[in-house]
Design brief:
This protein is an alpha/beta fold. It is built from eleven helices and ten strands.
């Protein structure tokens, strides 16, 4: 293990990180959970940040990589306490104007169902400089960790990433589920656990097969990851037994059938991070 650590340090020593200037905001993608899936830019930002405003879904192992920063939770978990988006925008602007290095840490990618676009627009309007650090979205990282390819040249030539609810928690009215059912071989559904019954009905009405495979991936890429495979007709029944506060990715499409062939041979153990308190006494 010491040799691996030394190799990583050698790689890091050859990279020159961009300046994280005081009074600026970096919107950082935390990835789907495994801290090993962070980018080097993200790790650098966390290491030097003065304050980190993080989502509820960001894992403790990722937060442990910001040892000198003040952590502020601004989570918006479905069905739970929510921090209004306007308040988050105002907080980012205020902290930057106070001369701090501010990280806005988001699960997955900042611009994929992460409201990063709203925050960058607010920062731009306020004249605050910012940087966007992409992250591995759950729709990519979660499917891979579950042994489900998002595409396959013999089975699926298209994939669509879709949110399962709007700002009120209802099924989005402006999503054309019929067009998605006919136009995308694979559907990767974010935040859709509460609405999967309605979604399944719409997909079936648009011509998808009742026997089409569906996978539920909970707490993707973490040591607690669990995968359940069912059919579109039975999806609502499976969803009823999954706690609503558990982050769940839902994949619909023929590629789900490849999971038994891939997952049995796949290594997917996540990295772990030694807590700051333990490192201080080591």
């Amino acid at each position: 293990m010491a040799g691996v650590t030394a190799a990583l340090e050698t790689v890091a020593s050859r990279l020159v990180a961009p300046e994280f200037a005081a009074g600026t905001v970096w919107l950082v993608g935390a990835g789907p959970g495994d801290p090993g899936l962070l980018t080097l830019h993200a790790a650098h930002a966390l290491a030097v940040a003065d304050v980190v405003l993080h989502d509820a879904l960001v894992s403790p192992d990722v937060l442990a990589l910001a040892p000198r920063a003040r952590l502020e939770s601004v989570g918006k978990r479905a069905g739970g306490e929510r921090t209004p988006q306007l308040r988050i925008n105002e907080r980012l602007i205020r902290l930057a104007r106070d001369g701090l290095r501010v990280v806005r840490l988001k699960g997955g990618d900042p611009l994929v169902f992460g409201r990063g676009a709203e925050e960058t627009l607010a920062l731009a309007a306020a004249g605050v400089r910012f940087r966007i650090i992409p992250g591995i979205s759950a729709g990519i990282g979660g499917t891979a960790a579950a042994g489900i390819p998002a595409t396959h040249r013999g089975l699926a030539h298209s994939v669509a990433f879709v949110t399962g609810h709007d700002t009120s928690g209802a099924l989005p009215d402006d999503v054309d589920w019929g067009a998605l059912a006919r136009g995308a071989d694979v559907l990767v559904l974010y935040m859709a656990l509460r609405r999967i019954g309605e979604i399944a009905d719409r997909l079936l009405s648009a011509g998808r097969e009742a026997t089409e495979p569906v996978a539920f991936v909970t707490e993707a890429t973490t040591s607690r990851q669990s995968v359940q495979v069912t059919t579109l007709a039975q999806a609502a029944a499976i969803a009823a037994d999954i706690p609503r506060d558990v982050p769940t990715l839902i994949i619909v499409g023929p590629v789900v059938a490849l999971r038994p062939l891939i997952a049995a041979w796949q290594d997917a153990a996540p990295m772990s991070c030694v807590p700051v308190s333990q490192r201080a006494t080591a």
